[in-house]
Amino acid sequence: MVSNLTGGRPPRQASESGAQLGALEAYAAQAHGFLSAGGEQLTQLAGLLRPLVLESWLRSVRGGVDPTDIIDGRGLRGADLERYRDAHPIAALMPLIDKLLVQDASHAGLIVTVADQFGRVLSVHGHPEQIAAAAEIGVREGDDLSERRIGTNAVGLVVRTGRATWIHGPEHFLHRMHQITGAAAPVHEPDGRLIGVLMIAGGMRVAKPEILALVKAAATAAEMDLVLRAMRASHGNGASAPANRDYSEQAKLGLDVLGLGQPQLSIAGERVSLSQRHAEILLLLAEHPEGLGADHLALLLDDTDLDNGTIRAAVSRLRTVIGASVVGSRPYRLRVHVATDVEALRAALDSGDIESALRLYAGPVLPRSSAPGICDIRDELRVRLRTAVLAAPDAGVLRRWTSCPEGRDDAAAWAAYRSTVDRESPLYAQIEAKIRVLDRRIGADATQMQRFDS
């Protein structure tokens, strides 16, 4: 019955696209063979899987997910699920989601899944045959699709990374999900918090850019609806709109975007919380002092086409927060220097001050952002910092890195840390024990596998 998820006849695709999907399936199937063998065979996974999928598979292995896992009865069901779903913020968006996504997808023989911020399935929409087929592989209302629970899948990856993505056939970690393809996108609150995930699932025709673009467009429309609702609620409660500030070129502005906390703008000592989108735009403008045209800024904010009207509206809203004179136009550029914690971190790395860099590094750059330009900055800083840490034969630096979330499972860093410690000391035994734990999680030499996480 799972074959019903393909939604009828296979689509007519360009031969190149079909060949690419065929190769992807063959490589992923081969990767599953190495996965079943375990041990040193896991080192063969690199090169067979897309980097995003490879990282997810390795996390799934470490988390103890069984690729042969069968469906169990766990999940939120009945009245408990109804109460939870009805009270969830995404419930108010369902008429819009139905209009933009569900109706067309159902007519095409596909299913639409709406999940919460944790990957819990709130609802599954489509023809009864497709819904039943999805239930047979574990995509049911009330089920947990988080990566932690079932390994690599589109919903779980969105929850984990905050970025829209698609997973095709045997790229799924669980064998029972190999006959479907899922394309999923996140839905965020106006303050940047993830509140849900939208996914279209079906056969191989879901593995097309148009499908992912459709899901992302629906998610963006849902986010805009949430913004409008928040604005109406604010005016209905008698709250006044934020004052339109105007700062001179001598004003001192600072932007903090490192770590899991809310992005913050400091204005002459006063701290103001920023939305995710405003922080993204401000950081990108700070990173490009020469300025960005609307088209370039749109590409850095989203890898699908954002129209210039959307960009203008976003920048206009940002000006109401930071001041009309701060951001110039044609191209968009900052007229006032904005000192960012990213800039400070780079300066510390440039000067070789690794200890200061580690103190500044409160966490990844805007970790919930999926904007391509932000992801590039995030990856650049993480790689630069980790490279500097591993190149520094300093026990204090290595201790600080291995105690932070990103370095906690960094086997190469633990091995470097071990080399700085006296073999007879109790600390050496503790580090050795940690490395053995990492070895057991991976099922192979952890220091060998570490290159996959770099």
Describe the structure.
- With 454 residues, the protein is of the alpha+beta class.
- The chain folds into two domains: 16-229, GAF domain (Beta-Lactamase), CATH 3.30.450.40; 251-393, Orthogonal Bundle (Arc Repressor Mutant, subunit A).
- The chain is 48% helix and 11% strand.
- It has helices spanning 15-37, 51-62, 78-87, 94-107, 128-136, 147-150, 154-161, 209-236, 276-287, 294-301, 308-322, 341-350, 354-360, 372-391, 395-403, 411-419, 426-442, 446-449, and strands at residues 111-116, 121-125, 165-168, 181-188, 194-202, 253-256, 264-267, 270-273, 327-328, 333-334, 338-340.
- Helix 4 packs antiparallel against helix 8 (209-236), helix 12 packs antiparallel against helix 13 (354-360) and helix 16 packs antiparallel against helix 17 (426-442).
- The two termini are 40 Å apart.
- Residues 7-16, 238-250 and 444-454 have low confidence and may be disordered.
- Keywords: DNA-binding.
- It holds the Pfam family GAF.
- Residues 269-334 form the OmpR/PhoB-type domain.
Keywords:
11% strand; 454 residues; 11 strands; 2 domains; 18 helices; disordered C terminus; Arc Repressor Mutant, subunit A; alpha+beta; 48% helix; Beta-Lactamase; 4-stranded mixed beta sheet
